[in-house]
Amino acid sequence: MVETKYLGTIESYFDVNNYQEAYHYSIDVLKSSKQNTKEFILADAICKLCNYITRKGESTDINQNLTDLKAMNCLLDWAGLKQMEFEVYIKKNEKEAILRMVNELFEVEEIFKKFDVRKELERLDRIKAWILKEITQKVCARRISLEYLEVFSQIGEVIHRYLNDDSFIERLLDILIRITDSERGAFFLFEDSKLQLVAGRNVEQQTINDARKVSKSIIRKTRKNAEIICCQDAMFDPRFKKSKSVILNKIRSVICTPLKVRENIIGAIYLDSRFTCGLFSDEDKHFLLAVTYFIASIIERSRIFLKMKEKNVSLQSGKFTGAAREYLIGESPAIKEIREMIERIAETDSTVLLTGETGTGKGLVARLIHYKSTRKHGKFIVLSCGAVPETLLESELFGHKKGAFTGAVNDKKGLFEEADKGTLFLDDISNAPLSIQAKLLQAIEEKTIRRLGEIVERRVDIRLISATNQNLKAMINQGLFRPDLFYRISVLTIHIPPLRERTVDIPILSNHFLKKYASKFHRNIVGFDREALKKMLLYPWPGNVRELQNTIEGAINLTMEHYITTDDLKLTAETHTKKRFPDKQAIINVLKSAKGNVSLASRLLGIGRSTFYRYIRKHNINISENNQ
């Protein structure tokens, strides 16, 4: 194709910084190409990059171009375009922008290694050198020591070789303890309001298993304030004069930094010494900030992070089963049917597809099915198909043989093998790329898998549960999801309706969460005032049950009265839509719940009795048919 030949010319001009010619050739490709083709998408993106680098003050956004290339499975083109974006930001000296994207650098590198594109890998090495330079400058305004530069190299090696290994966090802690002369280090994971010790080490590299040996009050303060805490002598620091853990453990020097991914605090790295005051300098503080700036996103995407979360889940299976039942509280026909379906299908081994919006509780329903099944003593393994880079997803699912690709230093089980005799839950399955979908189908149908780099077939005995908030049938029509895989994963389907379609359950759920959090926080709160309940019934709850739960938890902490008011709910005018026109199904649901009692049904919907009758007539609803 002429367009394909032109693309090579465009990239050549781009590489030698002749952005004017690259721009003109890109325009020619746009004129001669069809939209939604690879050539058109690439030329459009390069036009934007050329404009951005030649005209000061303009900004550009090629995120959609990159997303389209991934959806088309054009991984090498995606990686090449991403590298061009890195280079443009470097030329424009957009430091913050490129540091925010540093986690994608590893994905680009994996793709280049997979396709053995050595020239592009050399260009990528120059980008990595620039990033390292910027990070080291961020560490300290003055010249950084050679020792710290060596530490960054060591951390990079640990990420490269041990990212998905159980020893990854401990190896990282060993490096940080050594460089800061700390006595001990610990890595904590935050799960809701819980503080989970994932790994702990002392200077002799011995494992610390007891979280009580460090200061949990300092870690919680780090999470609450979302900022690093550095203390020269915690025993005499007024911030911690009431901290029992500081006094009991006789902690002197301590430094604790949050692991932040976007706006979420996923964990914290903690270092201390019981013997030395004034151990941590400003240089140490800036160094830790720089380290956690880029490793937090790497940790979040790693398999070890997913295993940590799963371990925490398995230790609290009773808690999660209870949470799942919370999401299914209600008297609406839809929720009653879901509860009955779970009981019926739990004992089968057929695949299950859970559909519904974010926040409806699909993941918790999957756990409930597992814990009610004969597989409850096996593992419940979770993988979010959207949380793992496409280049690593196959290895995550099926495992790999040592030497199968660069960085495969050990044999590794995939999640299919990990879930043997248990349940594998694939969340956001709509994000699985087409290249993986065919292998998923084969594994499900034949109950065998092959690790990357192996020819040996391994039998696996799993029950597969999948979930999505997308319309998979529409994706099939668009060529984004395989129809044969869809029919295989949806032998049994449970649709969890959004909260706005079962408004009759809102008062029941609200009262349950009110009792739960009033007891938890020791508050004497007995209910909701009439306006608050009415507002909750009219509010569309885009975040569904999860949003309702969080809203009530916040209101419990805010209110100064014995009743929750509209002010306590914090449902702003911008997000509050006046749902004064209930649809036919909403009216039928309420009538069934109220057993045909029109007065009760109208009160539940927060509208007058005469208005309710008007909508009954409008929708031609037979009251006698809905009084059961």
Structural commentary:
Residues about 140-145, about 310-320 and about 575-580 have low confidence and may be disordered. Helix content is about 55%, strand content about 10%. Strand 11 (about 450) and strand 12 (about 460) form a beta hairpin. Helix 3 runs antiparallel to helix 4. The chain is α/β, with parallel strands linked by helices and about 625 residues long. It has five domains: about 1-140; about 160-300, Beta-Lactamase, CATH 3.30.450; about 315-495, P-loop containing nucleotide triphosphate hydrolases (Rossmann fold, 3-Layer(aba) Sandwich), CATH 3.40.50.300; about 500-570, Helicase, Ruva Protein, domain 3 (Orthogonal Bundle), CATH 1.10.8; about 585-625, Arc Repressor Mutant, subunit A, CATH 1.10.10. The strands form five sheets. It has a five-stranded antiparallel β-sheet with strand order 2-1-5-4-3, sandwiched between helices. The protein has a five-stranded parallel β-sheet with strand order 7-10-13-6-14. The protein has a two-stranded antiparallel sheet with strand order 8-9.
In short, what is this structure?
This protein is α/β, with parallel strands linked by helices and 628 residues long. Helices cover 54% and strands 12% of the residues.
CATH 2nd-level architecture of the largest domain: 3-Layer(aba) Sandwich
Mean pLDDT over all positions: 80
Helix content: 40-55%
Instruction: Give the N-to-C terminal Cα separation.
Output: 67 Å
How many domains is the backbone divided into? 5
User: Low-confidence segments, ≥5 residues, pLDDT <50?
Assistant: 139-144, 309-321, 573-580
